[in-house]
Fold:
Amino acid sequence: MSTDLINRVLRFGEGRTMKQRVSRVAQIGKLEPAMQDLTDAGLREKAEELRGKVGEGASLDSVLDETFALVRETAWRTMGMRHYDVQLIGALALHEGKVAEMKTGEGKTLVATLAVVLNGFAGKGVHLVTVNDYLAKRDAQWMSPIYEALGVSVGVIEAMMPEELRRQAYAADVTYGTNNEFGFDYLRDNMAGRLEDCVQRGHYFAIVDEVDSILIDEARTPLIISGVPEAAADTYYRFARVVPTLKKGTDYEVDEKHRTAAPTESGVAKIEKALGIENLYLDVNGQLVNHLIQALKAHALFRKDKEYIVRDGEVLIVDEFTGRVLEGRRYSEGLHQAIEAKEGLRIREENQTLATITLQNYFRMYDKLSGMTGTASTEANEFAKIYEMDVLSIPTNRPMVRQDENDFIFKTKDAKFRAVVEDIAESHERGQPVLVGTISVEISEMLSGMLTKRGIPHTVLNAKQHEKEAEIIALAGEKGAVTIATNMAGRGVDIKLGAGVPELGGLYVLGTERHESRRIDNQLRGRSGRQGDPGRSRFYLSAEDDLIRIFSGDRMYKILDRLGPGDDLPIEAKILTKTVEGAQKKVEEYNFNIRKRVLEYDDVLNKQREVIYAERRQVLEGEDLSDRARDWVVETLVDVVDEFADDEIASSGPLVRFVSGATSSALTSWHKGWGQWLVLALVALHVVAIVVYRVRLRRDLVTPMLTGDKQLPPGTPASLDDMPRRALALLLLAACGAGVGWLVSLGA
Structure:
């Protein structure tokens, strides 16, 4: 069954449930006059009253109508912003643990306050997850007047924040932060040696902003905390020097569709000669094969300013979907080091994985999970299967009037970009602002150079400086503005139209290439036409674009040849658009399967992680584990004793065979049977002796453990009294780390 069909089935019955929500919103509206009659102090008292009811056992649903009406009135008084009815519907979806799909400019930040206040009354902590530190800080400060007026405490976690401030932030009713910070804090808590070193207090309810970006686009890269390094820098540099001398197609083969590279026999021979070894695949050469594979991938598949950028001597991964730099993330299996060697940078050595978790398994720990985004419908199947969240499309407050024009398709990239520059120049000349979307930093800078030659003033945003870019992109709707941005630069910031721009047709969104995911294309289009504003969008494509070349290249060229345009003339044809969308669907299915496999591996690891982390938590919380610890020691001693005794029995095998053979040859045929019985009797006596030996060992080694004094001598310092507990916690962590490393290697 196709993904599109599954998505349609999943949304069956949406109209009926929408009517129910509209009816609920009407009930909330009836409470508005009563809330308007309350003083500011009265609003605060009402909030405390509702919090008290929940604390006494009332369900959140029973106080929902009053809470939403209360928050709506508070927002109007403190910020001059009144929640629209459609925003109330969005908040209902969040409270129900669904994904609220709301178009750009529909006020998702304000929508979240309704569900936050309601669920905050439970006192268990609400986590509001954003895509970067800037948005976390901005949204918390922006909505703080509502929270402060109602007595709802707010915390923000940021990168490099001191432990004590983190703990205070998590103690608040609502905590804003990025997915990475929440995930890494969870891992760090489960590596802590003392309970007071932990910062999180549970996983009750999370609202994930830009939920598709976090739970889908970033889900292929797990969060990893690493430990002691292994030295191999010289080997990476050697392969980085040798691999560029190999010829593609002769010495190695590349599969761009599946992102793999492999050496041929001639390539292996050249590598062996360059390294001065006879056989690359001998055991003594250890990891050299992996070094070669990673060097080939770094050379042939990973391009600077597309898959990664180099900043301050460090290789930083660029998320292929969002265009954002993935701070703190590194490729695994030596690929990151291979890229560092290729770029001639200092190699940060490979590390042992101490703790890891996928974003899927982290967010599935929450008792209730919800999200909001402008584009989720195309991924409804994945949200349902992985996270058990339905997608609810929320109507816009005003009708959408943006014009989405047909794609222009060219034979070559050069022709495409020449046409792009002409289109930008024409729009700029008449004053219509243009937002140019690119899929990589490399293309952004190339296009910037072309515009500079034409004398067209413009701004380039590559999702490198979130706060600065948010300020710039907010001005992208001003008259005559030209802004080049990777698809996700400045996401989360509305683009408002300047004076006179609506009369010029609004913001023009121009895409220079289709993304692998239709959802990312929709996100780019969605930057125009907010809140009923006019606008238009168009994508420029070529048969040389990676998406089309890899997945539909031959077919696309045949169609273009049949239609017969010149290189500089575009084609608008439904059959071409369908071909492109078909390629996108193939990639979406492929990427979904990758994320699914990553999750399947992590599910195996997750079972171990849950057991070990639960044991560690019990240790840190002070539970008396002396009996359990002694049981573990006894089990270990018994295993050691039994293994030693078994070795003794095994060592008797040659003796048995020797005695049996000697007896058989020495005795006559009629004595032979008696001789064998004699041998068996001797062996039996030997085994009995070993069993007695095993019993004595158990008595001498194990019994003292069962009868010994559990208490440390009086006057033992508190630090020493706590030492066994901390040692046990560290042992559990080490056990988990060993398993994690093996499973991570298996998954890779």
Notes: The mean pLDDT is 82. Residues 574-620 form the longest helix (47 residues).
